[in-house]
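User: Assemble these into one structure.

Assistant: Restating your components, then the assembled model:
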Amino acid sequence: MKVMPYGVRGSLAAPGPSTARYGGNTSCVRVTGSDGTVLVLDAGTGIRSLALELPTGLSRVDVLLTHLHMDHIIGLGFFGPLYNSAMEVHIWGPASATLSLEARLRRYLAPPLFPVLLRDLPCRLELHHTGRGRFSIGAFRIQAARVCHPGPTVGYRIETETGSLAYLPDHEPALGARRFPADPEWTSGFDLAQDVDLLLHDAQYTREEYPGHAGWGHSTMHDALAFGRLAGVKHLAPFHHDPGRDDAALEKALEAAVAEIKPDFPVTPAAEGRSFDLA
Amino acid sequence: MAMSTKTVQQSVEMILVRQLASYLFVPVLVVDATGTVVFYNEPAERILGVRFEETGRIDPKEIDRLVELSADPSAGPEDSERPLATALQQRRPVHARRWLLRRADRVRLQVELTVFPIIDHEERLLGAMAMFWERHGP
């Protein structure tokens, strides 16, 4: 499978020359299988340009939402396939205890926040709840599970015969832990990430920034590295970069974390347009 | 690439319950849906007289060797039920006012017990949280 980020920024888009190396769009990743199946992970601002690069002739696309915070769905209304009557679009995401996925999405795709109603979209649209469990899309075998982050939030593990990816863009597994990481049994997200070839994981904060943001649902760079080591991942791509951190500051902070944690796997900060091939 | 076969991780709801319990002053036991004790906090270690690191998780059949919980002879009929089993089987909170806790070292404590089930968004029963309140006096 090929994994191509179109948005790696957390919380708020941060375009401009100071973030050009990694990109300023919010969370959106395309995963393409050897059979041509296309998955879109989250619908941040990166989804607009992702749609422009979809292969011609594609008749189905599946959008897997981790949660419904604005930075992960704000691009949905600008996703070209939704306006194409020949397209079949499947949106997967978590319901809440009282509202369906459709009802939750309608809060955004409706006036006054957006002019087009969800029900008026011309594509063939199907919505699916993802809480926990396994399902298949084309050649992909997918496992979803709730993870530690405010509100209903899932992470995904995506596998083919030749590769595995875990996508945990918003994840705070260290929340409340006396020691982190300690026991896999008691670590959020462990099952999803265990032994994967590539982990895209939240690394929004530095250790110094974290105390003022505990409980907001995001990890430090140190914790992302430690989580990757606990899970035995083969490659980590820090993700959900803080919108206030420019390229130079991001590289400096990550280098410091890597020097301290000394992971035994490569660490490549996720960047727009920098793909990963999981053969 | 095979799917992961070692599914050892607890649900995030149970992880958060355990983390919350570890910060509380009140003695707390966390059990899974089968009634197995999967965690108890430091205040619970004090009233149980044993550390969690020593026992690890405790099977429902084994817990009687650690503590004996019985209705206080002065308890009313509303306290005669089995709080933990009731909370799990009937998915409802239970508060038992007059219970006696007898430890393996024969120490006896009068306790009140509050148990509530842990149910996730999909209405799946994950376990229960039992909180002990030490009673002093009659």
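Chain B is about 25% helix and 35% strand.
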